[in-house]
């Protein structure tokens, strides 16, 4: 189709109510529907159609801190949604055994300082205070080790130089991609299916129509645009814009429109997971304020503490491990609490659709793309896609240009995250099994290969990491590079001559602040016990 043809088939006149049909009611479907109603109110008609037979993935419990912009956009405070979703706080990802057995390090939600133009990590390489890079450079690492809550018992958040915005109707809202403020100090863990349920009410209360039915056919018009989807029992659902939230199936984007899927599997071989939901007695067991990623023979296990249960799962490469073996390893890791719990085996499609917006169809969520859940990027991808969808929402003119910009932006985010994840495996010192040995020779994206060589001489900064917005700041790369321990990283030669006084003072300030906060803050268990009392 030519550009003119495509432009001719626009989304109707500006000002006309637009009909948006969201196919799929998982996290992606309901986040999209809620956001669109929050963005456009009754200027838009939103219908969500979801199957009662085809289940949702239902995992996806750890987030980026940026998700607060999503809730803010919906004008929801933590107290509105957290209790309904059994949510807890996440201050970091804790990596266990990636360097060697018994070792751990954190990737925290805390900006890393810089002294005299050199990142603190560089100073640390020259003047290490202890052998713990993360604890010397970040307050959060100590709070995680001590299982602290990021809020005091009266609800006051830990002061990391971030102010909270209000939730009043009049407050201006920011999108995450444009947010240039200080690093927010925490993210969340929550039960994905409870969030979907909460957002179902949010969106339907604001006018979204909810259809429970199977989409059995997708009809295209002569321009290749979707005219309607056909359901088993509710007839045809016509729309101007269709959002494909059908998960790994990609029913609209990949099946009906035939958009190719670009696999990342050559660089990220983990393609399978087995998950368990283990009951947790909060009164007896610690609620760690972080996601834990524990390296295993052929992948890694996630541990996500929620109110009343732990979400856990083994992400592995099927080339190296059978599903039965993965389930056995996971059950052994969890212990007797998992005995009666049924395992959920999942096959993951790793990569992205070549374009995520084609004609009048936008793929959001797993249908658009996915990388293994190592840094909890799935919901971040969804959130980013929705923000961009609103930003580039077509008016009926120049849609190709808007679509192209959207496609570039969403592809950049996924390609950038792919690089960041590849770094984890290359930088991990662990090389004891064939799986871990192969991580050292497996190809990585070409540009990353070059960056990795540079980082051995100069720790990552804004000028040397993946250059487009992908959610991850340069300090995140420093955390993995220095935490995982597989590379010999040198400090900048200039630091042999520079005055170290200010850097040493900064290390001391971090140490004192961490000590003070560990004394003052409640544990996460104490915090949520208090919340329960108050409820
Ligand atoms: C193992 C694993 C762990 C993960 N962990 C995290 C994490 O910690 N953090 C994070 O951010 N993300 C994580 N994710 C990603 C996260 O789970 C997904 O991004 C999120 O669940 C979104 O899924 P979805 O809504 O795109 O698809 P799904 O949950 O698969 O939903 C698909 C929807 O489409 C509907 N559907 C399909 N076909 C039809 C049809 N023909 N007619 C009608 N309806 C249909 C289904 O009924 C369902 O409602 C993880 C993913 C996996 C696989
Ligand atoms: N600015 C993003 C990305 C980010 C910054 N630090 C971390 C740490 C972890 Cl564990 C994940 C993500 C991030 C955000 O804060 O969401």
From TrEMBL:
FAD binds at residues 25-28, 215, 366, 379. It comes from Saccharopolyspora antimicrobica. The keyword Flavoprotein applies. GO terms for molecular function: monooxygenase activity; nucleotide binding. Keywords: FAD, Flavoprotein, Nucleotide-binding. 7-chloro-L-tryptophan binds at residue 90. This is Tryptophan halogenase. L-tryptophan binds at residue 375. Belongs to the flavin-dependent halogenase family. Bacterial tryptophan halogenase subfamily. InterPro entries: FAD/NAD-bd_sf (IPR036188), Flavin-dep_Halogenase_NPB (IPR050816), Flavin_halogenase (IPR006905), Trp_halogen (IPR033856). The keyword Nucleotide-binding applies. The active site is at 90.
């Amino acid at each position: 189709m030519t550009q003119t043809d495509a432009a001719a088939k626009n989304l109707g006149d500006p000002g006309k109510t637009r009909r948006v049909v969201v196919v799929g009611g998982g996290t992606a479907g309901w986040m999209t529907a809620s956001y669109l109603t929050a963005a456009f109110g009754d200027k838009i008609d939103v219908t969500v159609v979801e199957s009662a037979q085809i289940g949702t993935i239902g995992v996806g419990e750890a987030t980026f801190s940026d998700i607060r912009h999503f809730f803010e956009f919906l004008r929801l405070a933590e107290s509105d949604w957290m209790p309904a979703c059994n949510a807890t706080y996440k201050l970091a990802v804790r990596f266990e055994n990636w360097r060697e057995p018994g070792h751990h390090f954190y990737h925290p939600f805390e900006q890393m300082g810089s002294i005299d133009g050199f990142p603190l990590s560089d100073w640390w390489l020259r003047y290490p205070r202890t052998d713990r890079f993360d604890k010397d450079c970040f307050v959060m690492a100590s709070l995680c080790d001590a299982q602290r809550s990021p809020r005091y018992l009266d609800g006051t958040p830990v002061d990391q130089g971030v102010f909270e915005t209000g939730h009043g109707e009049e407050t201006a809202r920011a999108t995450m991609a444009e947010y240039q403020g200080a690093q927010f100090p925490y993210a969340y863990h929550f039960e994905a299916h409870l969030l979907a349920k909460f957002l179902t009410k949010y969106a339907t209360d604001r006018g979204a129509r909810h259809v429970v039915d199977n989409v059995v056919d997708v009809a295209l018009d002569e321009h290749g645009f979707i005219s309607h989807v056909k359901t088993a029992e509710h007839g045809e659902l016509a729309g101007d814009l269709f959002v494909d939230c059908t998960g790994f199936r990609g029913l609209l984007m990949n099946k009906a429109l035939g958009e190719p899927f670009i696999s990342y599997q050559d660089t990220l071989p983990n393609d399978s997971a087995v998950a368990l939901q283990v009951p947790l007695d909060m009164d007896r067991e610690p609620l760690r304020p972080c996601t834990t990623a524990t390296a295993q023979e052929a992948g890694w296990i996630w541990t996500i503490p929620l109110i009343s249960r732990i979400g856990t799962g083994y992400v592995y490469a099927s080339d190296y491990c059978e599903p039965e073996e993965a389930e056995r390893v996971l059950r052994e890791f969890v212990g007797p609490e998992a005995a009666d719990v049924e395992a959920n085996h999942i096959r993951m499609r790793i990569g992205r659709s070549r374009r995520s917006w084609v004609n009048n169809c936008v793929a959001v969520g797993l249908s658009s793309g996915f990388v293994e859940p190592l840094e909890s990027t799935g919901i971040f991808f969804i959130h980013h896609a929705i923000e961009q969808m609103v930003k580039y929402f077509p008016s009926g003119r120049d849609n190709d240009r808007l679509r192209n910009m959207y496609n570039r932006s969403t592809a950049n985010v996924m390609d950038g995250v792919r690089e960041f994840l590849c770094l984890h495996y290359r930088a991990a010192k662990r090389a004891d099994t064939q799986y871990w040995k192969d991580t050292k020779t497996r190809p990585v994206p070409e540009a990353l290969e070059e960056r990795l060589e540079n980082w051995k001489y100069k720790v990552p900064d804004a000028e040397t990491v993946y250059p487009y917005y992908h959610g991850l700041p340069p300090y995140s790369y420093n955390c993995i590079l220095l935490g995982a321990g597989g590379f010999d990283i040198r400090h900048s030669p200039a630091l042999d001559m520079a005055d170290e006084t200010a850097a040493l003072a900064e290390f001391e300030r971090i140490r004192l602040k961490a000590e003070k906060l560990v004394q003052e803050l409640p544990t996460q268990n104490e915090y949520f016990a208090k919340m329960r009392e108050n409820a």
